Amino acid sequence: MSKGNEVVLELKNVTKIFKTHNNNMLTACRDISLNFYKGETLGIVGESGCGKSTLMKMIMQLEDPTDGEIIYRGQNITKLKGEKLRLNRRNIQMVFQDPTTSFNPRMKIRDIICEPLINFGLIKRCERDEVAKKYLDMVELSEDFLHRYPHNMSGGQRQRIGIARALALNPEVIIFDESTSALDVSIQKSILELITKLQRENDITIGFVCHDIALVTQICHQVVVMYLGNIVEIIPGEKLYKYATHPYTKTLISSVFDLNMDFSKKINCISGDVPSPIDRPIGCPFENCCESAMEICKKQIPKLRELSKNHYIACHLDLGEKNE
């Protein structure tokens, strides 16, 4: 549930279509509308290829939408060009899945952290040591790392450097794209604790892309479930396990292995073949794999409708209200 009503970032009917090498059209995201609220975390989950990362790349302006608007503080940022586009990058930063690929291996940690500040003329080169120490402390690393190179650090330490660099420009929004997936469980836990701590202290709005539906419930205020480029359900993170309603979301939840799970209970599997994003079904994208599919599901794409407060679902089934 949203803590407040202040919308920082808004997506309106965003669609992204790629042309393949043989001139087919691949729809990576279709008609996506979302709100990112001040100081909250919006989690986006779904299997590989569902459009999660493409969506975040459009927010970061690494990809241009085919259609729709991305609005930051009342301004459509998809229309920005030149210097206005460059300046807007200060407001929205990203932490990548593998920080090593986004670091220059020849640069010291001090320079990696301070590079954005120097590019925008916010500090002098002689101030790098002092400024880098501040951000290292913020991500709970000692100043001993100042003159190290990325390859001299562990995966968790590199991810902290990625977070430090994202924080350097004091952005209002930070996108985490599978930023914990390559880490082991103990390191993952410490990184998540760091992210939530920094969010509280700096009132940061976060977009958190993840495969792990169990993980997003721990830190996300709102969870968006995507399938084949479509949003199928939006639900408060704290209510995901109890009130998830869409057949796809329920199947994702049932596939989560937990130490306290009932191992005598059958694990639901998705039947049927996942459609190709190039040859998309006319109706519901999940129709081919849904045991409850009806005739209308084959002919008409379901629109998101409000099931209950802050809970939306795209499904033709008469599901009724599940929670208050």
CATH level 4 superfamily: P-loop containing nucleotide triphosphate hydrolases
Major sheet characteristics: 8 strands, mixed
CATH architecture: 3-Layer(aba) Sandwich
CATH topology: Rossmann fold
Count every helix, treating DSSP H or I runs of 4 or more residues as helices.
10
**Tally of distinct domains:** 1
Helix content: 25-40%
Task: Report how far apart the termini are.
Answer: 11 Å
**Computed Rg:** 21 Å
- Low-pLDDT ranges: none
Order of helices and strands: EEEHEEHEHHHEHEHEEHHHEE
Notes on the protein architecture:
The protein has 324 residues and is α/β, with parallel strands linked by helices. It has a single domain (7-91, 171-313), classed as P-loop containing nucleotide triphosphate hydrolases (Rossmann fold, 3-Layer(aba) Sandwich), CATH 3.40.50. Helix content is 28%, strand content 23%. An eight-stranded mixed β-sheet has the order 6-7-8-3-9-10-12-11, with helices on both faces. It has a four-stranded antiparallel β-sheet with strand order 2-1-4-5, covered by helices on one side. Helix 3 (109-119) runs parallel beside helix 5. It is globular, with a radius of gyration of 21 Å. It starts with 6 loop residues before the first strand and ends in an 11-residue tail after the last strand.
Provide the descriptors you would attach to this structure in a database record.
single chain, 324 residues, alpha/beta, Rossmann fold, 8-stranded mixed β-sheet, 4-stranded antiparallel β-sheet, 12 strands
